Amino acid sequence: MAPQTAALSQVDPVWHRIREEAEAAVLSEPLMGGLIHAGILHHASFERALAYRISMKLASREMSEQILREILDEAYATDAFITSAARADLVAIFDRDPACHRLMQPLLFFKGYQAVQAYRLGHWLWMTGRKDLSYFVQMRVSELFGVDIHPAARIGKGIMIDHAHSIVVGETAVVGDNVSMLHSVTLGGTGKEDDDRHPKIADGVLIGAGAKVLGNITIGHCSRIAAGSVVLEAVPPMKTVAGVPARIVGESGCSQPSLTMDHLFNAIS
């Protein structure tokens, strides 16, 4: 473990709370003791617990848990952004998802959180030139979680993907910080062009279930995309769009829609 990571583990409030929740959960449900001990309480730090959980999920007969664990440990030791983003993602889910009552839940149980953290490994591999291995990670995330994020896509921190079924994020997509999206969202292209062809999602955007954002367009910060919309043109900051094709139907409703998770709006005629 890198010295900086070791120091952080000594004063890490997120990890301290996860361990407290895990200890209480074992007392409440002894039958979960083995899973919770293996996933949380046997580890000295958040990084080690996360590496264990993601490696266990991604492992297959083609790639062992031990090999994946070593790769994850290397990634976490050399790129501090990965685990700082993992903490921010964890807190984002706890703050925004009414079904999340403990910080340990996403780490152990939520496929949206686990899929994003596995993508972060794949992105690190892509950026360090290990593209075939990054494609393996992408394949496993798609097979396991129904989430297909190209490892070259750039995704910020504080990300919440609720339910996370059928999420697609294309190769040149960019997602900013503190973005929330629901299931069946696609950030895709519009044809066969082999260049910058996917959406750019700014900070604080809320994307409703089933929305499709297509092409190299920018979705302005703190905007909202209504469920089921098909967005083909750029969206200004702090607007709400809805429809097929989507059009502006009002303001964003608040300063931080991705945090409030408010999907309601007064449509205009």
From TrEMBL:
Reactions the enzyme catalyzes: L-serine + acetyl-CoA = O-acetyl-L-serine + CoA
Pathway(s): Amino-acid biosynthesis; L-cysteine biosynthesis; L-cysteine from L-serine: step 1/2
Keywords: Acyltransferase, Amino-acid biosynthesis, Repeat, Transferase
SUPFAM superfamilies listed in its UniProt record: Trimeric LpxA-like enzymes (SSF51161)
EC number: 2.3.1.30
GO function terms (MF aspect): serine O-acetyltransferase activity
A GO cellular-component term linked to this record: cytoplasm
Name of one Pfam family that matches: SATase_N
PROSITE patterns associated with the record: HEXAPEP_TRANSFERASES
GO BP term, example: cysteine biosynthetic process from serine
InterPro entries attached to this UniProt entry: Hexapep, Hexapep_transf_CS, LbH_SAT, Ser_AcTrfase_N, Ser_AcTrfase_N_sf, Ser_O-AcTrfase, Serine_acetyltransferase, Trimer_LpxA-like_sf
Coiled coil: none
Family per record: Belongs to the transferase hexapeptide repeat family.
Name this protein carries in UniProt: Serine acetyltransferase
Gene source species: Yoonia ponticola
Lineage summary: Bacteria, Pseudomonadati, Pseudomonadota, Alphaproteobacteria, Rhodobacterales
